[in-house]
Amino acid sequence: MVLLYFHKLFNINTICINRSLEFIKIYTQTKCRITTFGCVVAWSSQLFLSYSNILATLGGTKLLKVYFILRRTLVYISTRRSGLFKNMHNPLLLVVSLILSLLCVSAKENILVTCGSLVKLVNTDYGVRLHSHDVSYGSGSKQQSVTGIKDITDGGSYWQIKNEDKNDYFCRGEPVKCGKIIRLTHSASGKNLHSHHFQSPLSHNYEVSAFGDNWMVICSDNNWTRETLIKLRHLSTSGYLYVSGSTYSHPIPGQFEISSSNSAYGSSWKVAEGVFIQPSEQPKSFYNTTHEEL
């Protein structure tokens, strides 16, 4: 219940809750008694060593706020419950509450999807990764085609997350908020994920190509995380990035058609592999705001 309260208060997701519960379970199963101060010190020291890098990224105000709320809650539990919390004394409350604070905040910080990150996006309905290559559509726009592939090792499935083209400051490390407008730039070709009113070859939805355009990240939380299911809505056509389930033959046999559609099934995506840029402490004005198109 304590962790669910923090999920609501700080938008901490289920990864944080599961990680904290895992460590509580490990602690309760240890052979050491909770009244043995030496055991408490050894156990807590091991956790602090594992998460020592978190201290460098935490804001003092946030840490203290989480810490004192947890401490008051655990004191309340210790006076009204039997078992694990029955004989807990103040020093142990300090250790446990601080550790839970560190675990929760670190879990939230480490799973954010940030601007500048290089990611592979997997469609959760069909299990294919968003892909592009030096193969153009034979009809429609005749631009560079975008497909879905099952191969998880193909380097042609990496996309860099960039800011929308109307406000293209260097946003390296900035968390991507739900509702943010982004561009996805294909790593190998340098072209952007694009859609328009040309019909796609197989399903006759809106064609998706690698040329240049803006997409809105649709998700339910405040920020896009590595565990979040998202939809990508194309601003010009209002369609969602979509896997139709149809596959191509020559010259890209077995690859899935990617299009833009309003269909619910086939339009859910999740981050798979990637190189994730850590959130930056620098203000936006620190970076050079000029750029050149490829």
UniProtKB/TrEMBL annotation:
InterPro entries: MIR_dom_sf, MIR_motif. Keywords: Repeat, Signal. Pfam families: MIR. Residues 110-164, 173-229, 221-274 form the MIR domain. This is Stromal cell-derived factor 2-like protein.
